[in-house]
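ENTRY TYPE: paired fold submission
RECORD: A
CONTENT: sequence, then structure tokens
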Amino acid sequence: MKRKDLESLNDIASMIRDRAMADLARLNRQRLDLETERTQIAQDMQTAWREGCDNLMLAKAAENYEKWAQMRLRQIAESLAQLQPLIEAQRQRTAAATGRHRNLGEIAKKMLTEQQVAREKRL
């Protein structure tokens, strides 16, 4: 294999690795956004419950909010459950892409060393 071919393969592997890492970052960001929303809704539910206890006029609004929040929390839990296998699969793809890139880099270094040794022997 020529050095130029190896460099091209290394560049392609680098692009694939970068894309896989970007996809993994996007999925992790989606997970983080859902978890943040879940936390915020739980805090808002507690606040609404306290306000409802303190003020009878707000009690019905707090009850309605709690119903909506419970429904939204179920949706978030379902979304997180669906997202987890996607994240795991993307982690595996990213690890494979990183491994390929690393292997090609090692092969390139090895070829360069072999070429330098061959040059030294010629001298």
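RECORD: B
CONTENT: sequence, then structure tokens
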Amino acid sequence: MTASAAATATVLAFSSARFTPDDLATFETIAEPKLRDGHWVGVVRESGREHDRLLVLLPEVDRPVFRFERDGSGRYTLSFHDRSGWYGIGAGSSAAECLSIWRPRPRTAAPFPVL
């Protein structure tokens, strides 16, 4: 590239509808054990001008059941599909906040002995 071409190069803005590398890393920490253990059979990425989505496939289900999405305003949502349609189960201003429903929670002591 010549000096004059470099001076006139255009920098394209990163779309706020696209997952960042950190978003994908956050999702991967949740997805990897679920995929490894067979709870999920796959994840499909679907990108458009106004969204970026990760669709989660479960064993023996013929359609995506979970959808993690970042929209054009940079907002994150997590949805569940129950054959009637998509229902929101998480939202946030960051991937970690939105996906917090899937984060492991520490076990609490049982209120009574288990026999």
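NOTES ON RECORD B: The mean pLDDT is 87. The CA atoms of residues 16 and 48 lie 12 Å apart.
STATUS: closed
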